Fold this protein.
Amino acid sequence: MEHLPEFIGNHLVLVGALVAVIALLAWNLMKDSFSGIPQVSPAEMTRLINHEDAVILDMRGAGEFNGGHVLSAINIPAAELVGLIRELEKYRDRPVVCYDSGGTSVKSIAALKAAGLDKLYNLRGGLNAWQAAGLPLSRAK
C-alpha cells in the first residue's frame, strides 16, 4: 500500500483509464434506475400478465418478433411507435410492459408516457432475461 501513490503518479494514463472504465460500468448498470421507469423481472411480468391483464409490447423489428416473442405480445417496432401511439391509448387503464433485445424500450416507454399512458414497465434484461428464466416463447408460423 505504501507504493500506491508512487504507482498512481507513474501511471496516470492507466489509472485514468481504469477510473473511466469503472465509471462507464457503473453508469451502464444504473442508467435504467435513473430513467424513472419501473423495471420488472420476468417473474414480475408474469404476475402482471396473469393478475392485472397487462399488455405486452415487443419493441423489436418484425423479423426478430417472428423469430420468437412472449406469448400474446404485440409487435410495435420502436421506429414505428410514434405513428401507432393513438392505437395504444385504449390500453391507458392497463399495465403495459415493454421489452426488446437491446435497450431501446426505455426510450419507447418515455414516448408512451408522454402520450398519457401511466402504468408503464420495462422488462429488465429484455427478451434475453425472459429466455434465461426458462419461460416460453411463441414463434410465428
